[in-house]
Specification:
single chain, mainly beta, four-stranded parallel β-sheet, about 10% helix, glycoprotein, Leucine-rich repeat, LRR (right-handed beta-alpha superhelix), transmembrane, 17-stranded mixed β-sheet, 30 strands, about 20% strand, Leu-rich_rpt, about 550 residues, transmembrane helix, binds 2-acetamido-2-deoxy-beta-D-glucopyranose
Length: about 550
């Protein structure tokens, strides 16, 4: 769509006099090029019942005039670029919306508490305030509007609150308070929410037990209770019951597409109940204490696109070609176990096309040849393996003519087996590392970058300090082999995605933060299905 044309057409239509009779204005999915929302909307379109400006690259302050649209039943201003609600507040914005049904202000920087007038909005069915930088205590009364179906408060880190008891008449379908400061017990009566399809309460402060009444929520397609530190899973109780068994009722929620059980202190054998969930597209069991082998029944979950088993105590030999059964798999995380990954050298065509592949500490001894045919990969981890020999030339070839940005990590100098290096046509700047093979690479390995300096280029570096090697402890006390730190973000041309090549050894601490970032980053992108054009996320 030609956006600028669309834009002027739509705006002139909307803002000519006589437009006051418009009932619906839907300009979602346009590109208003960071302009503010025109305040005239509030003067000229007083009959509006539906206003949708989502995903339209508006920015700046939401004009207070919007609050005059008192007939609105739908207001969707979500997913714009840095819209803010500062000059006015949420209360004044919505207080006249007496017939509001759907209110979506996700990604608007609201920076305030949540006004409790919302509990009087008896017609409210959808309240979506994701990532709004809300804080304070969430008014409990907002759970009461009888028609509320969707309550989405995802990622308001400083917003606290608790989940009240529910009676049979609730119509909740979606309850998402993940990554907030919600706390307390999950009431047993949550089992009364028979229509619930999404329960997302990960990374909050709930305790002490996941109520078993959840087993009655047979409509669930999305269940993420990651980081729910169930008291029955604590170490002192480990002798009493195998934790995977205590949650085996999850295996009866046959409609689940998404199951998040990361950081849940699961221990013992693999939770076999997941093998029952044949609809699963997303399974996260990372950061638990699961031991034993990866059962082959996992390969029956053929809908999987995301499988995270990293940071457990899994062991045994895993034949990598098993994953060829998971045709849709795009993300696989096996790092941080005691696995031995067996990759046959003649393996390639049948594997899924990975976007994310974390194979740190998988007892690999060779640089996996199949990577050559993995054209969609943007996040590869191979640290803490026993890979020896050279990084194949084809691998470096893949770094050419992309959008590598930042400095060339000076640690690369220590790679005494680095025989080929070509980062031409990227966006690198700063000094070219001195020494070792870097002395042997020719000028054309560095051509067409933003501002590289130093030998072999004629361009001298101005700040001589920056060319010095920083002290590094990463390489000390290690035996020979393949290790260096390297995590550049590469934006492939035309695709909004980052290649994060992390080949790091013995550097667990530094890596943690990185893992965390990648985890949240990739989950947000894959799970939440947000459109990639948001400036904040790019
Ligand atoms: C607004 O428009 C977007 C894009 O077309 C759509 O996905 C969204 O559901 C609409 N919002 C509402 C509340 O109807
Ligand atoms: C709300 O409506 C009343 C009466 O229609 C009006 O006087 C008031 O200015 C409106 N408030 C806002 C914030 O628009
Ligand atoms: C809710 O509505 C009632 C009756 O209309 C009113 O008395 C009360 O002040 C309202 N509550 C809030 C928080 O606005
Ligand atoms: C059940 O909830 C509805 C709506 O929240 C409320 O109107 C009703 O009074 C509640 N019933 C009981 C018995 O609590
Ligand atoms: C599940 O629902 C059944 C019937 O509605 C009820 O009898 C049972 O107590 C519920 N189980 C739990 C654990 O809430
Ligand atoms: C162990 O589990 C029992 C019952 O399952 C519970 O009452 C007790 O509080 C738990 N102990 C600890 C230390 O968490
Ligand atoms: C698997 O699903 C079937 C059908 O719902 C159920 O009968 C069975 O108990 C489930 N098995 C496990 C291990 O949850
Ligand atoms: C995988 O599924 C097939 C057919 O659905 C079944 O026969 C087999 O037992 C399953 N394998 C495992 C390991 O569960
Ligand atoms: C890998 O796949 C490519 C293209 O699909 C093919 O040309 C090549 O021969 C395969 N290599 C091996 C070792 O099977
Ligand atoms: C790593 O793989 C080698 C064979 O390549 C095997 O002998 C060794 O036992 C494996 N190490 C572990 C910890 O599994
Ligand atoms: C590097 O890429 C170029 C162009 O795509 C190709 O012609 C060349 O064979 C590649 N070299 C290696 C070693 O893969
Ligand atoms: C590096 O790649 C560029 C093209 O991207 C090519 O012109 C140049 O010859 C290459 N340099 C070496 C040393 O291979």
């Amino acid at each position: 769509m030609v956006l600028s044309a669309m834009r002027s057409l739509a705006m002139s239509l909307a803002l000519t006099s006589g437009a006051a009779f418009f009932m619906r204005l839907d300009l979602a999915d346009n590109d208003f090029n960071f302009s503010p929302i025109p305040s005239r909307l509030g003067h000229d379109l007083t009959c509006l019942t539906y206003l949708n400006l989502s995903y339209s690259v508006f920015s700046g302050q939401i004009p207070i005039e919007i609050s005059k649209l008192s007939k609105l039943s739908t207001l969707d201003l979500s997913s714009n670029n840095d819209l803010e609600l500062k000059r006015t507040n949420l209360r004044s914005l919505i207080q006249n919306f007496t017939s509001i049904k759907e209110l979506d202000l996700s990604d608007v920087g609201i920076h305030s508490t949540v006004p409790d007038i919302l509990r009087n909005a008896t017609s409210l069915t959808v309240l979506s305030l994701r990532t709004c930088q809300l804080y304070g205590e969430f008014p409990i009364g907002i759970f009461r509007p009888p028609n509320l179906e969707v309550l989405d408060l995802y990622e308001n880190f400083n917003l606290a609150g608790y989940i009240p008891t529910f009676n049979q008449t609730n119509s909740f379908k979606v309850l998402d308070v993940a990554e907030t400061s919600f706390y307390g017990q999950l009431p047993n009566s949550i089992g009364n929410l028979h229509s619930l399809n999404t329960l997302s309460i990960s990374f909050c402060n709930f305790y002490p037990r996941v109520p078993s009444s959840l087993r009655n929520l047979t409509q669930l397609t999305y269940l993420d209770i990651s980081s729910f530190y169930d008291i029955d899973h604590t170490y002192s109780n480990k002798t009493s019951q195998l934790v995977p068994d205590s949650w085996s009722w999850i295996g009866k929620l046959m409609k689940l597409h998404v199951l998040g059980l990361a950081y849940s202190n699961l221990w013992g054998n693999f939770p076999y109940f997941v093998a029952n969930l044949t609809q699963l597209a997303y399974l996260d069991l990372s950061f638990n204490d699961i031991s034993g082998e990866i059962p082959s029944c996992i390969m029956n979950l053929t809908q999987l696109t995301y499988l995270a088993l990293s940071s457990n105590k899994l062991n045994g030999i895993v034949e990598f070609d098993q994953f060829s059964k998971l045709r849709s798999l795009a993300s696989l995380r096996l790092s941080g176990n005691q696995l031995s990954l067996l990759i046959k050298p003649d393996l390639n065509a049948t594997l899924p096309m990975f976007k994310l592949l974390w194979l740190d500490s998988c007892n690999l001894t060779e640089f996996p040849e199949f990577l050559k045919n993995q054209h969609e990969l943007f996040d590869l981890h191979l640290s803490a393996n026993k890979i020896h020999g050279q990084i194949p030339k084809w691998f470096w070839n893949a770094t050419r003519e992309n959008l590598l940005s930042g400095r060339i990590p000076s640690n690369l100098v220590r790679l005494n087996f680095l025989a080929y290096f070509n980062v031409s046509h990227n966006r690198l700047w700063g000094p070219i590392p001195l020494g070792q093979q870097f002395g042997t690479f020719l000028e054309d390995s560095y051509q067409e970058n933003l501002g590289l300096c130093g030998k072999p280029l004629s361009n001298k570096c101005k700040d001589s300090k920056s060319t010095k090697l920083p002290p590094s402890s990463i390489f000390e006390g290690e035996d020979s082999g393949f290790r260096f730190e390297f995590d550049w973000y590469v934006v492939l041309p035309g695709v909004i995605s980052g290649l994060i090549v992390g080949v790091i050894s013995g550097n667990i601490l530094a890596n943690k933060k990185h893992e965390w970032f990648v985890q949240t980053f990739s989950r947000k992108r894959q799970l939440r299905g947000r459109k990639g054009r948001k400036g904040r996320q790019a």
